[in-house]
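(Structure overview)
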Amino acid sequence: METIFDHNVTQSEMNAIGLLGISKEWYLKHTGTTSANLNLADLFWIRGEKAKARAYADKLPPDWKNDWYRTILHP
């Protein structure tokens, strides 16, 4: 499973996507594919890589995807 840790996430980026105080070990043990894709979408959106962010968001279940787009378009 691909995660934010495969993309050299910084502590400030983790904080920005709501993973304050989460260790890599805890994250890898407790995060499933859907949550990992959501976090990847958030990470790339924060980095300004909009196309990559949308590619990960498009892997989400419909309800999650709709919520993600709603959140980023109307923060």
Q: What stands out?
A: The helical segments are 11-16, 24-30, 33-46, 50-57, 62-73. DSSP finds five helices and no strands in the chain. The chain has a mean pLDDT of 96. Residues 33-46 form the longest helix (14 residues).
